[in-house]
Structures are given as structure tokens and as C-alpha cells.
């Protein structure tokens, strides 16, 4: 894909300083204080994908070690290497030696460490304790509850949150300017809608959309990401609330077929749009409750189209 390949975009716009990290201000300030004092504990970063856990870990390494950061950082993904042998050999061998060109301990970054087996986590706990003089560990996970308590008690735990709309809009606007892409406010809002605060997905969607046309519209973003247009979902909801079941059903079927959406994708979008409707609060509460019930049925294996029809029917008889 030439100079504008996604990999090049990802590396080009990955922050290299604390001031460049978006959306995690409180966490960045605390971690920056650790680095400036040269006394950083083991860290545990928890939160959804694409919100800055790996990026902040790399920024820490760059700030501490400068040009030698690659030599003093071990980065491994526990999804690929999740067994006890990796901890006993690869991680332990790296952690036991001193850092190059600095007095500060090396950094071992373990991504998706909630995928480590319990045996590997027990080995990791002992390694963290034994080699704290020569290495600091940064553990990243989506679900901190899967990390054993002895590891959590050895770390300063930071819980990351998805980026808000203002941060996504600002970041996408900055990238669009640098890449000479025309991006209006509606398109920026659409990037937030499809990403849900995930920066990686937002950049990926912007990259894919700009490959089609340098003038990126909201409709293009929704089409590229197989995401139903919010106004179409709103139309379905209002039809169902007005008792126009057949129209609502046919419109919903068209949306799903045209955008290649599955039942769970659709129910999540419906739930999101219900929250934005300008209707009575109690009606909205009943609709949200019904969305949860239908989603549970789908997860348990019920037919998607039958359940979505039942959802629309239930909206029509809400009092």
C-alpha cells in the first residue's frame, strides 16, 4: 500500500513523549512522576484494546533509556508465549542482567498477560521479586481479575479508559491535516462512533477510508467499517415505537443485509441509539432492559432474526 500503509501510519503517529499521549491524563501524570524520580515500581496496566497501554509503556522506555531503549526493553505477547518456559527462560534471562548505559533497571513489558497460565503467573511472581534490582515489569491486560493476587499486590495498578469523543476528534483531525485528508465534523464524529474510543480502530478506519477518497465523509466511514448509520437505526426504533412493526422489520433487515451486520452487532447499536433518543425516561429504561434480554438469548444460541423481530415487537407494545 506504499507510503501510506497502515503499519507506517501506526508507527508515525505513535507518541514518543508523555505530552503526546491522548486520553489518559491522570495516569500519565502519575507514571511521569515515577520516571522523573527514577523510582518506578512494577506496573499493571488494565483496560480495553487500543487505548494506550502499549504506547505508554514504550514512552516510558524511551524517556528512561533514550537511544538505548530497544536494548533495555523486552517486549513479549503472552497470547503467543503463555507457558511457564517463557517466564523461566526468556524473561528470566533478560531480567537478571543490568541495563546498558544507565543505572535504571531494564523494563520487561508483558502484553496481554491475562492469557498467561496460572503456573506461568506463579513463576512470574517469583521472577518479579527476585530480580527487582535489575528489572521492572510492566504488565498489560484486558481483564485484571485474571491476574493472580500476588502479582497484583506487587504492582501499581492503573485502569485505562476508552478515549472520549473530544480526544478522538482532536487526534483524527491532527492526522487528517498531516496526511492532507479532508475530514469534516460529521466524519470525525463517525470515527468516534465506529471506534468506541479505540484509537487503533479509529486510525485503521481513517486509513481505509482515505484510500478510497481523500475527502472522507461520514457515510464512507460507516460503509468501510460495516457500521449501520445511526439515523437509520433511529428510524427503525421510532417506527417500532409508533406501532409500524412491518416497516420497522423490513428496514432493519435492509440495514443488516446492506452492512453485513450480525445480530449481536445490531443489538449493540440499537442499545447505543436507544440511550440517545428523545423519549420518556421510563420507556427508554424498558427498551434497554429488553435489549439486555434479547442479547442474552442470542448468546445462548437463539435465532438472530427471530429475536430482533421480538425486540421490535416488544418496543411497539411498551406503555
Any overview of this molecule?
- The protein has about 325 residues and is α/β, with parallel strands linked by helices.
- The protein folds into 3 domains: about 25-160, P-loop containing nucleotide triphosphate hydrolases (Rossmann fold, 3-Layer(aba) Sandwich); about 165-225, Helicase, Ruva Protein, domain 3, CATH 1.10.8.60; about 230-315, Zinc Finger, Delta Prime, domain 3, CATH 1.20.272.
- It has 15 helices and 7 strands.
- The protein has helices at about 5-10, 25-35, 55-65, 85-95, 120-130, 150, 165-180, 185-195, 200-210, 220-225, 230-240, 245-260, 265-275, 280-300, 305-315, and strands spanning about 40-45, 75, 105-110, 135-140, 155-160, 180-185, 215.
- The strands form 2 sheets. A 5-stranded parallel beta sheet has the order 2-3-4-1-5, with helices on both faces.
- Helix 8 crosses helix 9 and helix 11 crosses helix 15 (about 305-315).
- The radius of gyration is 23 Å and the shape is elongated.
- The N and C termini lie far apart (about 55 Å).
- The model has no long low-confidence stretch (mean pLDDT about 85).
Main beta sheet strand tally, sense and closure: 5 strands, parallel
CATH class of the largest domain: Alpha Beta
CATH topology (fold) name of the largest domain: Rossmann fold
Oligomer: single chain
User: Number of helical segments?
Assistant: 15
**CATH homologous superfamily designation of the largest domain:** P-loop containing nucleotide triphosphate hydrolases
Overall structural domain count: 3
Q: Which percent band covers the strand fraction?
A: 5-15%
Instruction: Look at the structure and give the mean pLDDT.
Output: 86
**SS content category:** alpha/beta
Question: What is the element string, with H for helices and E for strands?
Answer: HHEHEHEHEHEHEHHEHHHHHH
Count of distinct strands: 7
Helicity level: 55-70%
Looking at the structure, what is the overall shape? elongated
Amino acid at each position: 500500500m506504499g507510503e501510506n500503509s497502515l503499519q507506517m501510519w501506526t508507527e508515525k503517529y505513535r507518541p514518543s513523549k508523555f505530552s503526546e499521549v491522548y486520553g489518559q491524563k491522570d495516569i500519565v501524570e502519575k507514571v511521569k512522576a515515577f520516571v522523573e524520580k527514577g523510582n518506578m515500581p512494577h506496573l499493571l496496566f488494565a483496560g480495553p484494546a487500543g487505548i494506550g497501554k502499549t504506547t505508554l509503556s514504550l514512552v516510558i522506555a524511551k524517556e528512561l533509556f533514550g537511544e538505548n531503549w530497544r536494548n533495555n526493553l523486552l517486549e513479549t505477547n503472552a497470547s503467543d508465549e503463555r507457558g511457564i518456559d517463557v517466564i523461566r527462560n526468556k524473561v528470566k534471562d533478560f531480567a537478571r542482567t543490568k541495563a546498558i548505559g544507565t543505572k535504571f533497571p531494564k523494563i520487561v513489558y508483558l502484553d496481554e498477560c491475562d492469557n498467561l497460565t496460572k503456573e506461568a503467573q506463579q513463576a512470574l511472581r517469583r521472577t518479579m521479586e527476585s530480580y527487582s534490582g535489575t528489572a521492572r515489569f510492566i504488565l498489560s491486560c484486558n481483564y485484571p481479575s485474571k491476574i493472580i493476587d500476588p502479582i497484583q499486590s506487587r504492582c501499581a495498578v492503573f485502569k485505562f479508559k476508552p478515549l472520549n469523543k473530544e480526544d478522538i476528534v482532536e487526534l483524527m483531525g491532527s492526522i487528517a491535516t498531516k496526511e492532507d485528508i479532508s475530514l469534516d465534523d460529521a466524519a470525525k464524529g463517525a470515527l468516534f462512533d465506529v471506534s468506541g474510543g479505540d484509537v487503533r480502530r479509529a486510525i485503521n478506519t481513517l486509513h481505509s477510508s482515505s484510500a478510497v477518497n481523500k475527502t472522507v465523509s461520514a457515510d464512507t466511514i460507516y460503509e468501510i467499517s460495516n457500521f449501520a448509520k445511526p439515523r437509520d437505526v433511529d428510524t427503525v426504533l421510532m417506527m417500532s415505537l409508533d406501532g409500524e412493526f412491518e416497516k420497522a422489520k423490513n428496514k432493519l433487515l435492509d440495514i443488516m443485509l446492506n452492512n453485513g451486520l450480525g445480530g449481536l452487532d445490531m443489538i449493540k447499536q440499537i442499545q447505543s441509539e436507544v440511550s440517545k433518543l428523545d423519549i420518556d425516561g421510563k420507556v427508554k429504561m424498558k427498551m434497554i432492559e429488553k435489549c439486555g434480554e434479547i442479547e442474552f438469548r442470542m448468546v445462548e444460541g437463539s435465532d438472530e432474526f427471530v429475536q430482533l423481530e421480538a425486540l421490535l415487537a416488544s418496543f411497539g407494545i411498551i406503555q
